[in-house]
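Subgroup meeting minutes
Present: P.N., E.W., G.H.
Scribe: E.W.

1. P.N. recapped why we're keeping a running log of single-chain structure predictions: easier to compare across weeks, and new members can see raw inputs and outputs side by side.
2. G.H. added today's entry (271 aa).
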Amino acid sequence: MSLFKKDPFGHIIFIKKWLIRIFGFLTHRRYRGFNELVIEGSEIIKDLPNTNVLFISNHQTYFADVVAMFHVFNASLKGRVDSIKNVFYIWNPKLNIYYVSAKETMKSGILPRIMGYTGAITVERTWREKGKDITEKKAVNPTDTQNIKRALYDGWVITFPQGTTKSFKPVRKGTAHIIKDYKPIVVPIVIDGFRRSFDKKGLWLKKKGILQTFTIKEPLQIDYENESIDEIVEKIEYAIEQHISFLKVIPADIIENDKKLNKERQFPFDY
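Output recorded in log:
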């Protein structure tokens, strides 16, 4: 590998590789040590093609969700099954993993800017600005769409279709348009426990002993030519378990039982 070889966005691969290694080693204990990441379905990862794969997921923190995905994807590619045991899987990481992130988020400090070098595709949110929803929707920047296209043609792209860390917010139609236009393999991921473990940005550990879950589902079956944007949006909502039908009143006895289970789940793990 040439020392100054660059990815499609002009990032030097050698620097990118070292940043992923460093962040990987620094963050590993957040998912296997201070807290435990329980993974399901990681066998799906190793069978995916090298390019044009779109991962869709619900969103709980700005950065911890993506970092967990880097860990799980690289561990799976190195033969771990539903495990991120032995962090040395990150020594030779997959370098064509990208993630869609709001431009204002990636410019919010020096650490996000450095993290952005590992694979961020920054986009301007059309419905939100400075942490608040705006009434007058802005026009989509065509450069943002082209950058996602470039990333898909080069590798894997992670996106959070709701565009926010709040649960059960609408899935944005932009993701459906990307799916319909570029016809990627679409792999749903459902995560939980991250907002209890980390602060909103996902940079700092908020609480230890939390069970985090990470479920990878089979790729969606999509009729790219005939399914409408609204049909794809609904399919995404169900896949990442953010459809309104998942909102329901939970009986008190189930809540109480879950509390007991959560206590039992704190640090029963063999490290």
